[in-house]
Amino acid sequence: MLPYNARTKDRGFTALEILIALVIAGVLAAIAAPSFLSMFNKNKVNDALTQVRGALREAQREAIRKSKSCTLTIDTTKKDITANPTDCLPIKPSLYEKRDASGNCIESRVAIATNLTGTPPQFKFSFRGNTNKLGTIVVYSSDNTTNRMGCLVVSNGIGMIRTGNYDGSTATVDSNDCHTTEDTTE
To answer: Is the per-residue pLDDT at 106 higher than 60?
Structure first.
């Protein structure tokens, strides 16, 4: 026998209640999706900037350690960083997501711009770890889903590397548009 206050008609949710819950969940997902995508691409930019900075610092360290000059080539179309001699950069950074059979970047969420001269642009560290030119590298979202643009400046002379936020144009990269977040010297 059932107790007096027991309900016998509670069997679950009605179709209307489920529909309302799904509509609310859909609206919340539609609101959150652009923010999530922007955060994801901002993290991609930050990771790429960290990889570029790590490659420059590693090449600078190897030049000092091995007492020989080291040249880094930054290919903005292939999104590739290579070193000459190759042992200056033991771990090659990966700024791309997919490559074709000939090694060209076919999918990437980041793009690179620089004011370095040469085709492709290059940094050269001497055996003392210094460089003979000032250079700025800007890393940004290739599909403009985030307004985050990170920059990296290598100073002329002592080879100090600083990173920051970039607020200029990627068509004409200028070191004065890189507002630093930290300074490091090696």
So the answer is: no
Place of tokens 């991609």: 44
d(CA 96, CA 79): 6
Q: How many CB atoms lie within 10 A of CB 16?
A: 8
Q: State the Cα–Cα distance between residues 18 and 21, nearest whole angstrom.
A: 5
Please name the helix (run of DSSP H) or strand (run of DSSP E) that holds residue 74, with its range, or none: strand 70-75
CA atoms within 13 A on the CB side of 60: 21
Is 108's pLDDT higher than 90?
Answer: no
Nearest to 140 by CA among 34, 52, 33, 32: 52
List beta partners, residue 123. Answer: 72
φ/ψ region of 62 (left if φ > 0, alpha if ψ in -120 to 50, else beta) reads: alpha
Per-position DSSP letters for 104-151, written without gaps between them: -EEE-SEEEEE---TTTTEEEE-TTS-BSS-EEEEEEETT-S---EEE
8 A C-beta contact, residue 59 and residue 89: yes
Contact criterion met (CB below 8 Å) for 159 and 60: yes
Q: Is the pTM of this model over 0.85?
A: no
